[in-house]
Specification:
13 strands, alpha/beta, binds pyridoxal-5'-phosphate, seven-stranded mixed beta sheet
Length: 334
């Protein structure tokens, strides 16, 4: 936590348009610490319900559980792989205190609708921005500045990645920020004076050096990702492949380019034969995971359909035009 962390925090806060950025050890802890911070300031308490999309990456749900709160899963839609807003409002109970939207695959969650629901029911909005560094809404506001606080991950494969683990929290809340600066480092604001039962969740100085350099390339990397996404969107023409819904704006930074197919086994086998890399994000929905037995008997048909059909095709700012050509022609020939 020296000059490089400090300098990265200032640059990333400025980039996101927020008053504060607090570097932490990873994305999971960024999300958990936000909740712990709100507990410390008395805005949240153990047992509170937090609404989360049932198709999110499991980290969002773990963060809520580890902070002693109750994740309430809300069904998704296949439109933008995010909250079904009607289901979101229906899931609100007396003990609901926060909504934790995820900008999944790099596409902003429907924040306007979510904020409306949050305002009406007096709920906190905590963004899981781990896949959406730099995504911008139509007013030019970026991920990390669209709710009360946001958690980022700098895991190497994210749009802004370190060369190891790292994470950050952004917020405009002075009180929360000051508590988080203590909580991430043993509850101290000066050495060996422990004011809170804190965590060891520091952003490493060495990772901050890499992040400072890579932040200057984030916009051009995201633009390149969108260029590739535009080519995929207009040139992949195969009735068996459903393309992601996107309006062409900067609200998507294409952390992943996710298509859907009904016969995924055949598609994956074909891509393997053609030597086109493909991954599944994610093969098993959180409510079917052994780690979350309390949800195992629940049914989320849309989420299950998403998990059965999604395939992430090659997406990276370093893909060449020839590689993009080849992905397109291989997909069109399936
Ligand atoms: C990567 C990721 C996280 C967790 O980040 P780590 O740094 O791996 O702990 C949380 N949420 C989402 C949506 C992610 O993609």
């Amino acid at each position: 936590m020296g000059n490089n962390v400090n300098s990265f925090e200032n640059s990333f806060a400025e980039y996101c348009g927020t008053k504060h950025c607090i570097g932490v050890a990873n994305g999971l802890e960024a999300l958990r610490l936000i909740l712990e911070g709100y507990k410390t300031v008395g805005r949240l308490q153990e047992g509170d319900e937090v609404l989360v999309a049932s198709n999110t990456y499991i980290a969002t749900i773990f963060a809520i559980k580890q902070a002693g709160m109750k994740p309430v899963l809300v069904e998704a839609t296949t439109e933008i792989y995010n909250f079904d807003i009607q289901a979101l409002e229906k899931a609100i109970s007396e003990t609901t205190k926060a909504i934790m939207p995820v900008h999944l695959y790099g596409q902003l969650a429907p924040m306007e609708e979510i904020s409306k629901v949050a305002k009406k029911h007096n709920l906190l909005v905590i963004e899981d921005a781990a896949q959406a560094h730099g995504a911008k809404n139509e007013n030019g506001k970026r991920a990390g500045n669209l709710g009360d606080a946001a958690g980022f991950s700098f895991y190497p494969s994210k749009n802004l990645g370190a060369l190891g683990d790292g994470g950050a929290i952004t917020t405009n809340d002075d009180v929360l920020a000051s508590v988080l600066r203590k909580l991430r480092n043993y509850g101290t604001s000066s050495k060996y004076v422990n004011e809170l039962t804190g965590f060891n969740s520091r952003l490493d100085e060495v990772q901050a050096v890499f992040l400072n350099i890579k932040l200057s390339k984030l916009d051009s990397d995201n633009n390149r990702r969108r260029e590739i996404a535009k080519r995929y969107s207009s040139e992949i023409k195969n009735k068996k492949i459903t393309l992601p819904k996107w309006n062409g704006n900067e609200d998507h930074v294409f952390h992943l380019f996710v298509v859907r197919v009904e016969d995924r086994t055949d598609f994956m086998e074909y891509l393997k034969q053609q030597k086109v890399g493909a991954l599944i994000h994610y093969p098993t929905p959180p409510h079917r995971q052994e780690a979350l037995p309390e949800f195992n008997s629940l049914s989320f048909p849309v989420t299950e359909k998403i998990h059965n059909e999604v395939v992430s095709i090659p997406m990276s700012p370093v893909l060449t035009e020839e590689e993009v050509d080849r992905v397109i022609s291989v997909l069109n020939s399936w």
